[in-house]
Amino acid sequence: MHRHRKAWLKGDEFCCPTVPPECTRPFRLVLLGPPGVGKGTQAGLLCEELGACHLSTGDVFRAAQCEGKLTPALHKALAAMQRGELVSDEIVVEIVRERSGCLRCQGGFLLDGFPRTVCQAQALDQMLTEEGVALDGVLSYELPVEEVVSRISGRRICQDCKAIYHLQTKQPKIANQCDHCSGHLFQRDDDHPDAIRVRMQIYHESTAPLIDYYQKAGMLLPIAATGDPEDILHRSIDALNDRYAEIDRDKISRPAKTR
Ligand code: AMP
Fold it and tell me: Which of 112, 163, 139, 143 is nearest to 227 (CA)?
């Protein structure tokens, strides 16, 4: 199910054009995982499956790049992002706080890219308490570093239409040429193996402590991110079923696409 996410992308003073139908069991989840693990793909599949809204802080920043008028917080966030740095905790929390109505949305949510640090996770806990809702679980996608490097370093992008290919798993029909628009395929600078190792290092330093945080809170659901996206989705749904059985809620029945 596709959601407009206007309130999330633009801020709480905007309303989404369609309110998600009230469901008996809104899913309120966080997705964690290193770059290249396929978290974005899983977010899309899980949203379809669970009917929840995909709330990505990266998407908020990318949408803001197309806006003429920015709040001071968004202005600072974009400057940090363009330098290839993480946005400061203070600014990210402020931006999410401006959208905290999305956390109590009756359709539920999948947070992707937030929280990224323990400080952000603590702020999220506080916002959820203020909104009167609770997190149901944290899906943590895991993949050995060498597999991450191989996955990302094979990625190629069309310079014109931005379609994504992979040298091993999704080859274009003609080498280095986009199937859709014949544009030239290139490799992003940060997709080179050395750059990937640096990104993994940053992930381990700032984001991996979150795994400990959510483990201690009894929220963590580790998912092996090997195999194709459907396999990973099945594992995610199974883990959620176990989690919901644990917290004494209804089981997810597949397929749930009718919601
Ligand atoms: P993403 O699409 O999640 O990879 O985010 C793209 C960029 O946005 C990141 O490289 C950061 O510069 C910034 N960003 C997104 N979410 C956060 C966050 N929770 N904390 C800090 N920086 C973030």
Answer: 143
Locate the ligand 1 atom nearest the alpha carbon of residue 96 and give its number.
19
User: Which tokens belong to 157?
Assistant: 């992008």
Which distant-in-sequence residues (6+ apart) come within 8 Å of 113 by Cβ? 56, 57, 58, 59
What is the arrangement of strands in the sheet containing 155-158, beginning at the earlier edge strand? 164-166, 155-158, 185-186
Pocket of ligand 1 (CB under 6 A): 56-58, 61, 80-81, 86-87, 92, 113-114, 116, 120
User: pLDDT tens digits, the chain, 259 residues: what are they?
Assistant: 446 677 788 776 677 766 666 666 788 999 999 888 888 889 989 988 888 888 999 888 888 888 777 888 888 988 888 877 889 999 999 999 999 988 988 889 999 999 999 999 999 999 999 999 999 999 999 998 888 888 888 989 898 887 889 898 889 999 999 999 999 999 987 788 888 888 888 888 888 899 999 999 999 999 999 988 899 999 999 999 888 888 765 555 554 443 3
Place of tokens 């989404």: 16
Residue 132 — left, alpha, or beta (φ > 0 → left; ψ -120 to 50 → alpha)?
left
Residue with CA nearest ligand 1 atom 1 = 58
Give the CA radius of gyration of the chain: 19
Strand partners, 222: 140
